[in-house]
## 1
Amino acid sequence: MWPKDVGIKAMEVYFPAQYVEQTELEQFDGVSAGKYTIGLGQSRMGFCNDREDVNSLCLTVVHRLMDRYGIKPKDVGRLEVGTETILDKSKSIKSVLMQLFEPYGCTDIEGVDSTNACYGGTAALLNAVAWVESSAWDGRLAVVVAADNAVYAAGSARPTGGAGAIAMVVGPDAPLIIDRGVRSSYMKHAYDFYKPNLKSDYPVVDGHLSIQCYLGALDNCYQTYQEKVKKKYKENVTLEYFDAMLFHSPYCKLVQKSFARLAFVDFLNTPKDEVSKKYPDLEKYHNVKLENSYTDKDIEKAFMTLSKVAFSQKTQPSLFLANQVGNMYTPSVYSGLASLLINRPIKELAGSKVGVFSYGSGLCSTMYSITIANQTEEGSNLMKLISALQYIKPQLSARHKISPTDYTKVLEWREQNCHTVPFSPQSNTTDMFPGTYYLEKVDEKYRRTYKRV
């Protein structure tokens, strides 16, 4: 027997306590007003100072998750981490997190790290689901952690950074059920975004290729997902099939373009004799091949206009954290899930179908779907999950603003000390959220010590 309704039972979101305002960054960078806010769709960008790194982000989010939901170390049988922020080429972040379990004598915990750009969190989640559904499952919970510090060299990509972590509990009888047997993946070799220089935190980015790879992966995943649902459930999938659609968000405007892309795929799948009735002004695009349309601005504009209302209903609510924190990399699409849960009434969420598209450059991508349990009563698992996320908005408001000048100094300081040992961080810890882990020091053997606020 399969365990019933395997999926996400609990979620915790963490972002650093400081941010930079994108309008101020526009002025600082000397670009036209609206370039980052309207052009990219971003308002604020969270970032780590020298007190936080990917290890501390993970320690913070896992400790907070276990506290908030009353999870005991002995309850966890698998712990998976997805990240692309590498501090060590050998030692996994999962092993660092064992500091939270060892004092309780809990060391029988499976799982390590998954790495491929922004896709690692999804790889970790799918591994956790597979474990719960396997003969190896011993009845305990799986915890999945996705965390990154996303920074770019000075230039046009810098405003698309961000930082944060999300932890999720995976098990049976979940309020967010991951649909079985219909997920689709698209994997390919590409140099669209990569980090070959191990002395630097910064990636090498081919912006145009990156967008083309992302949209191409989306096209392929969507079409394969459609085929699998058709085969398994005899149902036709269009955007109408989903009550909400979540995307990995490098920046919010690309998500809007991606939603329009799916509308374009639906349009191309419409039988020719129906096109003139359904899309009278768009007939001229019906013979266009998908692969020839990535740089066609007319098509992009036409389908963004066509899908505008549906986008505002199905996807806009999920971009709240992406707009306020930036691109967290591996947690990005899951910040979309958390945003959806805190921005929609429970009556709308209960029983709904949510499409999820996860993308990581290089490239790996998967589309899958979540069925939200039809639970609206007080004390239900869904109500508990949504109630537990209500701290997100007040915590976003409680962050403090840093000037672009000081933000730039933080990045320059991090650049200079990327591999310096011994190293003592300079930033104070007084402004951090309670319960946040911070880097105390790196000793002469590169060993990192953390404390908790």
## 2
Amino acid sequence: MDKLIISCITTYARSCLLKCNCKVGSFNREQRLYATSISDRFPLSGVRILDLTRIVAGPYCTMILGDLGAEVLKIERPGTGDESRKWGPPFFEGTQESTYFSCVNRNKKSVCIDLKKGRQVIYDLIKECDVLVENYVPGKLKEMGLGYEDIRKIAPKLIYCSLTGYGSTGPYASKPGYDVIAASVGGLMHITGPKDGPPCKVGVAMTDLATGLYAHGAIMAALLQRAKTNEGQWIQCDLLSTQVASLINVASNYLNAGKEATRWGSEHESIVPYESFPTKDGYLTVGTGSDAQFIALLRILELPQLADNKKFKTNTERVKNREELLHILRSEFKRKTNKEWMEVLADAPFPWGPVNSIGQVFDDPHIKNIGLVKEMEHATVGKVKLVGPPVIYSYAQNEARLPPPTLGQHTSEVLKELLKYSEATIKNLIHDKVIQ
């Protein structure tokens, strides 16, 4: 039975691979079947990505694809590279390599090409790739002959993914986009921050990250579709649309009930109690999403009298009378330290957890136990620690395999091994400042 299953999978894999334009090194499509064998557990092994992105959203997307086994060729500007390489301090000790750059650029090869001078080099690379990802302002690449319609003529089966601030149409299309601006225009900052305080940005670039995740999913779907149709396509993702789509219940409340949103701090508009409570030495977050969980909280806090109070019987009533209830609960939580509460709540049937500093996060016994932090050897800075992929597969591999590259680390290697450029050609390109 196992042999029959493997035979069926192999036959299907061969049919899919022959339909696409993927290549591994100089292998032809038949040879690729053996390079990407059934025993290879990386889902995207054999898929090659041409990565023309910088900063966060695009690099985050391509890093996820790299974790899944795709070969990612990160195209960078000679001399400067990805802007986030200079986003510091902090830098790795004794270097000018920013720690910021390292967080979204593992599993990639850095290839330095001047897009204006090296268009033909890009064309040659595109013919060897399955996916192109870019995050230029709409129209910028088209001016250089690298827009979707230009590329489609060269590689009709290529999946071309654009990440922009506002999309390619609409009055904002030509504007550059940053996470904090999309979070402002898209309402996230309006609903983030203390109740009576100013709007706040989230501590990390959540709009960028969400856009990168949407793009990653869209690329995976397009690869699956191409296996069926043998066609490439243009995918467009943008920060503002992603941010508005991420408003979830807040958007639904306004669109269907006309309810304008406000800032709630750590409280929840529709669930009480659900917030970070100040303790004797910190903060502890507790969420009771059901009446049964609320009763359990009262039992643990030794406040049984509140269970019979009509004002707090149901979540609807608790939301209406939140101020009275929260005043009582906040006073109670201030009686003990975080450590004491963690002991009291150890077996609680509702979600809870301390508000950790970043140091406490990485010292957390659970984080240590699951091995989420990976250590890799970097070409110039020595050992580098990275937060590895958060997804675990029962069969497939999803790993941090390669450390973040130095600028132009793989230029000659890629042009020589993938494109079969001669040493003389590469030297001429370097001399003419087309590559670095």
